[in-house]
């Protein structure tokens, strides 16, 4: 029972986090805006526990800052830092793809193909949230396929910090189609056991995400 309760809290926290992320990126919540747990709990009709968890997730991603005895507030959107993080992410994920092309088993390659096939229908239907979930699973499969635990940990840590940015760049016109195509390039290179091509394809994919998000935020401002 405790596990089910924790899962429900996590789900509600994710929902709250996504709403606040959308309001930050759209400009509804400006830098410096206080995020009061009690007010948010009343707004969403929930206890303060999932609200507190959502705020902690936002703090971890850098969208919110929290100081002792000062509460939480929306952080300034530091595009320069975000782009620097994407630069590092592109190299780390590129290495994951390189090693995956050399080390993935036949079963792992089949599973990666299945994820890409699943994302096709979601892309066509413009189901952004569902597509992002499968997109995340695709990247995670590449991490695991590297068979390098240290690299996997680094990739997962940065992915978590960049998750809000990676999710919202999919709102850019035609970006979901481009993302699907870029995944196809990564997949083809891994299936062909071509490390150089896999690394280059993944690096391009992650770098484009940074460029698209920077443009997207600039337009919204």
TrEMBL record:
List the CDD domains hit by this protein, alphabetically. WHTH_GntR
Family annotation (InterPro entries): GntR_C, TF_FadR/GntR_C, Tscrpt_reg_HTH_GntR, WH-like_DNA-bd_sf, WH_DNA-bd_sf
Q: Keywords, A to Z?
A: DNA-binding, Transcription, Transcription regulation
SUPFAM superfamilies reported for this sequence: GntR ligand-binding domain-like (SSF48008), Winged helix' DNA-binding domain (SSF46785)
Q: Matching SMART domains, A to Z?
A: FCD, HTH_GNTR
Can you give the residue ranges of the HTH gntR-type domain? 10-77
Taxonomic superkingdom: Bacteria
Name of the protein described by the UniProt record: GntR family transcriptional regulator
Q: Could you tell me which species this protein originates from?
A: Magnetospirillum sulfuroxidans
